[in-house]
């Protein structure tokens, strides 16, 4: 008996979006059990899209969870951000049309955020929209892309520039898929989990402090709970602000600094979650300099980020001006308003646009580099 | 003083779609008057997309109707159905990103159905959706694409296979743009206008019989009224059936026969409206054979189609089997159910799936060829 077979009853979270509502099922060993996929198929035509890293581990198991009369096609693309392009979407459309699939077909995205975003966009635009099921296999995609309906691909002139809002019919999260995830990527996913605690849920943050070892050891109950709570927190925020005008910006805690790091190092050098981890610590430090967090709060933030296996220092070669330029706050934009997500307390983030520029520059000067 | 300047007050029709509601403004001389465009711009960034046939006539006039502080870019693509591709959509996205346009930009589609459908799709997917204004310059696009929100492009393996539902912020119909439309295309647009009368509005059909000469002479008041009534009838039908399950199928009167003609002749040989004109007459003939229309009704149908300058005969080289094959009713599909849009009376179309196959074959044998 494998560990997953001893596991807890799967958890289900309903994302409430009127007639576009859908469930997120979370548990160990869900893949391969027809109970979790069959109810969400629009018809018999099923196209599974995955990548070369995921397919050898989970494609056969996923197919075992489809009804025997399904007409199943599969498309296996290269792994990595380079797959998140219009060319890949074109391959999906070609495959759908070559298979003669109609409006009642279902696309299943088996993989991480790249596959989920790209396949979701393919589904959004095939015959003006077909059914789509997400089976995210990385912790980051499980806690981030499962909620919000954002799909899309990169353009040579900008990331995520082409896309659509398109909701899945269901999200199926099998925590067993994390067993083959590189530890570094598990840590990167944990950065986003910690983020939900920091911005909105002090109780969850305390739970994460207690359970971080269990999470990194892939203990199924701990994982399922962390994923469910993260998805629930994101769903609450998205429901309060579908059009991304206000509170949804809180989800960007750590992202302004983090994007600066990612962009400066060249995308793909630092994992997104690693950069966000450092960015959240920078936000906590700045919040301390504003008098909101005390030294102990910053220490707790650093400790949990470290416990997740994430770096605590910014890149050695990144100077203050490098940060300001990437944050569009360089000398050409002296009038640009600082708009940052900061922490009034652990578990309570705010959008703040009154940070004195000097304070930001002090932080950027003092923050440790490695 | 040109004729347009003597014209009537523009008509406005509101398409009711909740928060996605938008107006259709119809009149002569609207292009070039800032009153009709300015209220619908999302911000200062404006991208006009048009084609080489339309640009020399109307691009400058359209630009004169934009506010002086607008940042205007333009993209002029080749004329014709070959422009309705993902490659063209890619050119629009390239141009938007090269111009640095953000989510508050506005796309304006200046041209016929190809430009409208393609640019609408580009708007639907640029940064997950930006504002879009339609300025249709053919009668067909004015009475068809103005309502319904269907956008998209062709794929080598199928027409309109890739697309999205995306509503414009406004539709601006300047009947003066019909002055440069080839007479054949005006007639093709009139086929769709007649269709609205046949399926749902006997009074409008009678009005069209009286005013066909005025319409073909481009009399502005008659044009504006015909366009408004057509758009209103389509809007009513779409509102009753947004998801295209029921009554919306009535819009396909004449299209099953018409598509068979277009496909058999090779798309682009017959104009869509020409094929639909013959198809509507075939539907009227079949309705007569079912005992619904009398001989006088069929005669009226033929007369108004002829008065619009449209052909009344199917292609000489198209046999009964050619029709059946294109309608997917050939020998391989003997069990296929006939599902046709027919006329219970002039002004009252129905979806009918009980036509005896022999009756259809009799019609196809007897219908005149040229």
UniProtKB/TrEMBL annotation, chains A, B:
EC numbers, comma separated: 4.2.3.4
Ribosomal protein recorded as keyword: no
Subcellular location: Cytoplasm
Domain 3-dehydroquinate synthase N-terminal: 75-187
Sites where the protein binds Zn(2+): 192, 255, 272
Catalytic reaction list: 7-phospho-2-dehydro-3-deoxy-D-arabino-heptonate = 3-dehydroquinate + phosphate
UniProt cofactor note: Binds 1 divalent metal cation per subunit. Can use either Co(2+) or Zn(2+).
Predominant place of localization: cytoplasm
UniProt cross-references to InterPro entries, sorted A to Z: Dehydroquinate_synthase (IPR050071), DHQ_synth_AroB (IPR016037), DHQ_synth_fam (IPR030963), DHQS/DOIS_N (IPR030960), DHQS_C (IPR056179)
Record Pfam families: DHQ_synthase (PF01761), DHQS_C (PF24621)
3-dehydroquinate synthase C-terminal domain residues: 189-333
Keywords: Amino-acid biosynthesis, Aromatic amino acid biosynthesis, Cobalt, Cytoplasm, Lyase, Metal-binding, NAD, Nucleotide-binding, Zinc
Cofactor or coenzyme needed: Co(2+); Zn(2+); NAD(+)
Pathway(s) annotated for this protein in UniProt: Metabolic intermediate biosynthesis; chorismate biosynthesis; chorismate from D-erythrose 4-phosphate and phosphoenolpyruvate: step 2/7
Binding positions (NAD(+)): 79-84, 113-117, 137-138, 150, 159, 177-180
GO molecular function terms listed in the Swiss-Prot or TrEMBL record: 3-dehydroquinate synthase activity
Enzyme class, UniProt record, top EC level: lyase
CDD domains the record matches: DHQS
Function: Catalyzes the conversion of 3-deoxy-D-arabino-heptulosonate 7-phosphate (DAHP) to dehydroquinate (DHQ).
Protein family per UniProt: Belongs to the sugar phosphate cyclases superfamily. Dehydroquinate synthase family.
Protein name in the entry: 3-dehydroquinate synthase
Organism encoding this protein: Billgrantia desiderata
The organism's taxonomic lineage, starting at the top: Bacteria, Pseudomonadati, Pseudomonadota, Gammaproteobacteria, Oceanospirillales
Gene (name only): aroB
């Amino acid at each position: 008996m494998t560990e997953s077979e001893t596991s807890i009853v799967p958890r289900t979270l309903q994302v409430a979006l009127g007639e576009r509502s859908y469930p997120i099922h979370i548990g160990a060993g869900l893949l391969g059990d027809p109970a979790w996929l069959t109810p969400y198929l629009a018809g018999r035509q099923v196209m599974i899209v995955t990548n070369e890293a995921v397919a050898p581990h989970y494609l056969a198991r996923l197919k075992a969870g489809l009804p025997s009369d399904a007409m199943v096609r599969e498309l296996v693309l290269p792994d990595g951000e380079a797959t998140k392009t219009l060319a890949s979407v074109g391959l999906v459309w070609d495959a759908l049309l070559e298979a003669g699939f109609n409006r009642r077909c279902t696309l299943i995205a088996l993989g991480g955020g790249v596959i989920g975003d790209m396949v979701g966009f393919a589904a959004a635009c095939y015959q003006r929209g077909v059914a789509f099921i997400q089976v995210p296999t990385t912790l980051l995609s499980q806690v981030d892309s499962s909620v919000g309906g954002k799909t899309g691909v990169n353009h040579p002139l900008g990331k995520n520039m082409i896309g659509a809002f398109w909701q899945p019919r269901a999200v199926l999260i099998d925590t067993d898929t994390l067993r083959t995830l590189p530890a570094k990527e598990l840590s990167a996913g944990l950065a986003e989990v910690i983020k939900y605690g920091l911005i909105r849920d002090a109780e969850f943050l305390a739970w994460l402090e207690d359970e971080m070892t269990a999470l990194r050891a892939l203990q199924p109950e701990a994982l399922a709970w962390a994923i469910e709570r993260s998805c629930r927190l994101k769903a609450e925020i998205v429901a309060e602000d579908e059009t991304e005008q206000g509170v949804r910006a809180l989800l960007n805690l750590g992202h302004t600094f983090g994007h600066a790091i990612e962009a400066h190092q060249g995308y793909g050098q630092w994992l997104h979650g690693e950069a966000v981890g450092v960015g959240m610590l920078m936000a906590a430090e700045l919040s301390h300099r504003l008098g909101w967090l005390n030294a102990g709060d910053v220490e707790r933030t650093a400790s949990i980020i470290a416990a997740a296996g994430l770096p605590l220092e910014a890149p050695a070669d990144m100077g203050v001006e490098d940060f300001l330029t990437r944050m569009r706050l360089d000398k050409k934009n002296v009038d640009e308003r600082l708009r940052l997500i900061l922490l009034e307390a652990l578990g309570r983030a705010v959008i703040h646009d009154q940070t004195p520029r000097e304070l930001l520059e002090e932080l950027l000067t003092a923050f440790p580099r490695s």
